[in-house]
Amino acid sequence: MRSLLFVLLCLGVATPQAESMPYREYDALEEYAPSVRGDMWLSGTYRLWADPGRLDWRMAGNPEDNWKLNWKFMDPPFNQTVHGGHFALDRGEELFRALNAKGRFAACLGARQGRLKGLRTGYPRYHAQLRRIVGLEEAIELCAARQGRELQNGSYDNSAVSLFLASKSQGMPIRIQVDKGPMQQAYARGRKLFHMRTGRSNMACSSCHTHRIGLKLRNVAVTTPYGDVAHFPVYRTRFQLQSLQLRFVECNLDSGTQPLRPGSSAYTDLEVFLTALSNGYPVSVPSERH
Amino acid sequence: MHQRGKEPRPTGFLTAPGMTGLVFPRLFRTKPGAWLVSLLLLPGVWAAELPPDAAVDRGVPTMTLTPQVVVHSGRLEWEPFSRDLSAWPTLSHADRRSTEKPRRVSLTGPLEGDATRGRELAMRRDKGFCMLCHQLPGEQWSGNFGISLLGYRLNHHADADLYQQVFDPRVNNPHTAMPPYGTNRILSDQEIRDIVAYLQSLE
Predict the structure, then answer these.
(1) Which residue segment(s) compose the domain that A221 sits in?
(2) Which of A8, A217, B21, B91 has the most CB atoms in a 10 Å sphere around its CB?
(3) SS3 state of residue B67
(4) Which residues in chain B have Cβ-Cβ distances shorter than 8 Å to A217?
(5) pTM for the whole thing?
(6) Number of domains in chain A
């Protein structure tokens, strides 16, 4: 089924709300498809990056054009050199082997018969034991704790394990289902949060990432929200290793909103929404971002 | 300072995740007897609370924390952020605080702004930081979310209109990306006057 989901988000004023609801503003009407193809009409750049084999390398070399590729420039195949992400990957493998000595860690994460292939492509997901939706990093924290090891969501070691698991799905498309049950509700909440203005500057994620794609903040062009999740966690010199939810923290701080702790329900809803926007896009790690 | 980097898991029904419930006022957590009072004061009281999943430390002057990823560590460290962002609504489901509504203002009296001070304020990261979005003279890394402000004086805008634009641009365009500097108390009345004087000096 190819359902286009419509969000009717008018400025908060127009929505009849219960007396006790706080006043909030939302960005303008937007449509989304829970698949990377939805970018065909949002930024129009999808045709330029849908097929990694046919990327126009000249655009990558041009600062005005490289955002249009959405291959995020530094990611493979543009950056073939060894970078910090490769070291993190090794670290993640080591940690994983230690944690999974008895096979319980992988089982807790939801691997069938210990098979790690494809595991990454199904997160975030509803975790039956925890009875809530968790992102991969949150699951890693909780499952590591059961093995007696502290791997806080967002920490280097947690993201390293996440990166190792992602590498086992290298090239496989992200594939989460948001058409029913709790995942559908999380997707809808995440979509709403993506448009909700917050903070000192009163900006929403969409203020930058859907309404002003390609425009610049100082010298950085904002890119489309489609396809991002497939290359997280990323290596960055400033963060060493940045999980998706730490990117939310950074964007929040940059746009004047008090950030939340990784693993908070709001961030997880946002993660579900953004991951659905990467459905169909191949996992590509380890990546490097400026 | 480097607090355990985790939101307290919501336990009571009042703070169940995703629920449109309320944040139980910290004030009353310690005194069960205050329940009665809280019932009387409810609407006013719950509106002001910072949600429990916000990355803050009440022990540091600026409250807001920024994460530090430490290589080969299973702990996420947090450090004080340079600005306090805790006073405005967050993305948390438990945040019941309202966004400030758009405010129409009128400039009273003569402008009496100082363009030199205005320029400084426009450049400061914790104040205007206008070049994030606008081209300004002497700034090579300007953004282009908004129009170039080079030679802006030549547009001959009235002081009052520019004052409104900086104070709260939502009045002119509800979908704007520009922050409401006055309404959200980022810039004071005098600071906005200084910035308007600066804009009016741009040749």
Answers:
(1) 25-49+66-77+177-289
(2) B91
(3) strand
(4) 132-133, 143, 145
(5) 0.88
(6) 2
